Amino acid sequence: MPLPPDWDDDERMNFMFSDFKENRDVDTTDWDSKTDFWTALVLSSCRHQGSVCVRLQELNHSFRRKEKSPLGLAKVLQSMSRCGKIQRESEFAANVDCGWVSWGVGLLLVKPLKWTFSTLLGSSSRVHPEESFVVIELVKEKAAELLRVYRGSEFASRSVLSFQELCTLSSGVCADESTLCMALLQLQRNKQVLVSLHEGEKIVKFCLPGQDRVSPVSDVDIGIYQLQHSEKLLGERVEKLGLEADKCREEAKRLLSEGKKSQALRCLRGRKRVEKRADNLFAKMETIRGILDRIAQSQTDKMVIQAYQAGVSALRVSLKDVTVERAENLVDQIQELCDTQDEVNQTLSSGVTSADEDMDELEEELKSLLDESKSEPIADLPDVPTNRLQPSGESDLSGDLLSSLPDVPHGLLNITTEQLEEELNQLTLTDSGFQLQKMTSPAKR
């Protein structure tokens, strides 16, 4: 059990192990400090042990330190009871259902009834050392965990289970049968579980997923439970007969190896009879499975029909005020509004025209601007050459090329003949592997 860090502090533990004052008003700090310390330790101890119940006698033994037991644990339990953190086991069971007490009184309330009924009648406020209290926080945790384990198990498809099956299923959740019953009582409070007796056997019905509360155990539930129980018994019987048949076969082999042929034949005949019985039981088990499948299908069909009915009812309510005439009227109104909007948009997009403007005058001015923008030809530039350049190899490259070039313009271009000749001498034209040599002007020749 985990202990608080100051458990080894003798001075603080002497204070915590001392008894409470007679009246809380004398020293509220002293009283509340001890109550908070022991309340947290009680909850931690129960959670560590996996228990949902506490007893004063067990707490005195668990919290014993240096041969001393706490003196104020009885007042701590009374304080926790007043705050609703714990509740007497008898009250917890009685507040659920009288039926629970009838089948669980021998299991849950294991202590003598002389103090149980006096507690129910309210004639005793003293905490009995062996009286059991239920820790409400922990029992709620156990109940939620038990429901989660059930819905994640192979039994989730079955709403009704036997109490023994549930004990086996909850062995990893509830430390003992009493803890399981407390968790079931809490689930009963939450309307998620219902327990009833069938032919002297306790059966537990769980709330199906999607339902707010569990429904009462019906004849259909009892019938399904009986079929499932019969299927289980037949399965166990078939398995047992299979083992018996294998045993007969092994015995026949042994007898045959020993030379006892007649005895070996008797064993084989016995094996055939066992196998025939197993086949008959297996056929009956298959019939039961078929019935269960049909029941499951009928329940699904019933659920679908109920969903259809709910859908039809909802649709009828939704279409209560909807008629064809009303729909046509609304469509006409929408079309009329759309036409009005189109007319407004067309009017706005046409723009605003001034009355003083003369359109003919504007067009005439635009035409004059276009005439003025036309560019005049440049007279001083040479004409575009019209002679075709001949490809290489047909004539002398230098003569034809120079003859096809236009005359050098004279006039506004501020450049002399010598400058043009110098620039021409620097040009090198290459065509088909031939290179033009520097040319000299006629003036220099």
TrEMBL record:
Disordered as annotated region, ranges: 373-409
Coiled coil: 345-372
Cellular-component GO terms for this entry: cytoplasmic side of plasma membrane; ESCRT III complex; multivesicular body; nuclear envelope
Domain CHMP7 winged helix: 139-207
Subcellular location: Cytoplasm; Nucleus envelope
GO BP: late endosome to vacuole transport via multivesicular body sorting pathway; protein transport; vesicle budding from membrane
Bias (Low complexity) ranges: 392-405
Membrane spanning stretches: none
Entries under InterPro entries matching the protein: CHMP7_WHD (IPR057471), Snf7_fam (IPR005024)
Metal-binding in keyword set: no
UniProt keyword annotations, A-Z: Coiled coil, Cytoplasm, Nucleus, Protein transport, Transport
Record Pfam families: Snf7, WHD_CHMP7, WHD_CHMP7_1st
Tagged with keyword Transferase: no
Main location: cytoplasm
UniProt similarity note: Belongs to the SNF7 family.
Protein name listed in UniProt: Charged multivesicular body protein 7
